[in-house]
């Protein structure tokens, strides 16, 4: 198994040809491109990569170079908050890899990105330089448009790079964290106020569920409202519990969830937890899945 997963989020989701070039740039030797997801309303794409630290850093540096050539935030519009062209780059340890490996990779990338591309870089979550910078939402508050004022405040001096906004690419946030599940719920209403109210009731900061971040949007391309969620620790709140709460809060406001969506890839344990909880099978493990049993009992090749 590769040592690390990396999930760069980029501020481009409307030009498929640009998304394809971004994905190709990240696919350096030794980097496995596992998934590409993009959305025109969010105007954002998410790449899922896996590899060893050195290979990932090489691929990500190429991705930054391509993104700075392709994306200009002065002409960017979308419902999703964003601070930079390469908005956020989290490293996630896989298997038995310690978090320290992900933190070291994040810090090395941050230093090199600032040096090569003259970008302000913030470190977040487990790679954060100080406790008040752990939260991505706190760092990103105000977005690209407010970045000049933010960088003028000494307490918001970047961890690496200049204390000034890159003209077209803004700033970037790099970090190390546990698995995050990005999940959206589409409602049978076009009223964004309903989605915002549901999001406020569900998210942890509003007194909702632990480890849940949520926002509400209207999606012009789909003609419906969406509750957009990040489940930052499925060990604290299961995916099934979060979605059940969304359905209940939507129903209380006269709306219904008509479709769900996972952005990126879902960790196997999180999917198993949904089955265990929904079907009341507490003893179910990966060994109870046909494909896993076939893999674990496959005859050795000569």
Main sheet?
7 strands, mixed
Q: How far is it from the N-terminal to the C-terminal residue, by CA?
A: 21 Å
Summarize the amount of helix as a percent range.
Answer: 25-40%
The arrangement of helices and strands along the chain is EEHEEHEHEHHEEHEEHEHH
CATH superfamily of the largest domain: Formiminotransferase, N-terminal subdomain
Strand content: 15-25%
Q: Using the coordinates above, name the CATH class of the largest domain.
A: Alpha Beta
Question: Outline, from the CA principal axes?
Answer: globular
Q: How many strand units? A: 11
**CATH architecture title of the largest domain:** 2-Layer Sandwich
CATH topology of the largest domain: Formiminotransferase-cyclodeaminase, Chain B, domain 1
**Helix count, DSSP H or I runs of 4 or more residues:** 9
What are the SSEs and their pairings?
Elements: E1 4-6, E2 9-10, H1 16-26, E3 32-39, E4 44-51, H2 53-70, E5 86-93, H3 99-117, E6 121-125, H4 136-140, H5 147-151, E7 172-176, E8 181-187, H6 192-202, E9 212-219, E10 224-231, H7 239-252, E11 257-263, H8 268-279, H9 290-296
Parallel strand pairs: 5-7, 6-7
Antiparallel strand pairs: 1-4, 1-5, 2-4, 2-5, 3-4, 8-10, 8-11, 9-10
Helix pairs in contact: 1-2, 2-3, 6-7
Index terms:
9 helices; 302 residues; single chain; Formiminotransferase-cyclodeaminase, Chain B, domain 1; four-stranded antiparallel sheet; seven-stranded mixed sheet; Alpha-Beta Plaits; 23% strand
């Amino acid at each position: 198994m590769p040592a690390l997963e990396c999930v760069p989020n980029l501020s481009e989701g409307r030009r498929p040809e640009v998304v394809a070039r971004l994905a190709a740039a990240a696919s350096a030797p030794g980097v496995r491109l596992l998934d590409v997801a993009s959305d025109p309303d969010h105007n954002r794409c998410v790449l899922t990569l896996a590899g060893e630290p050195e290979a990932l850093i090489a691929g990500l540096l190429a991705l930054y170079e391509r993104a700075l050539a392709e994306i200009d935030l002065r002409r960017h519009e979308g419902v999703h908050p964003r601070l930079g062209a390469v908005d956020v780059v989290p490293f996630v340890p896989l298997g038995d890899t310690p978090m320290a490996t992900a933190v070291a990779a994040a810090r090395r990338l941050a230093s090199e990105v600032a040096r090569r591309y003259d970008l302000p870089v913030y470190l977040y979550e487990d790679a954060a330089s100080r406790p008040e910078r752990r939260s991505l939402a706190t760092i990103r508050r105000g977005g690209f448009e407010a970045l000049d004022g933010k960088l003028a405040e000494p307490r918001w001096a970047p961890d690496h790079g200049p204390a000034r906004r890159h003209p077209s690419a803004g700033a970037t946030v790099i970090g190390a964290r546990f698995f995050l599940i990005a999940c959206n719920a589409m409602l049978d209403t076009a009223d964004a106020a309903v989605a915002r109210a549901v999001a406020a009731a569900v998210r942890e900061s509003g007194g909702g569920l632990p480890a849940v971040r949520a926002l509400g949007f209207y999606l012009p391309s789909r003609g419906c409202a969406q509750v957009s969620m990040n489940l930052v620790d499925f060990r604290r709140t299961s995916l099934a519990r979060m979605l059940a709460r969304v359905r209940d809060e939507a129903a209380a406001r006269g709306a219904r969830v008509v479709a769900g969506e996972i952005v990126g890839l879902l960790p196997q344990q999180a999917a198993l937890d949904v089955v265990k909880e929904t079907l009341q099978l507490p003893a179910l493990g990966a060994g109870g899945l046909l494909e896993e049993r076939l893999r674990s009992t496959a005859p050795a090749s000569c």
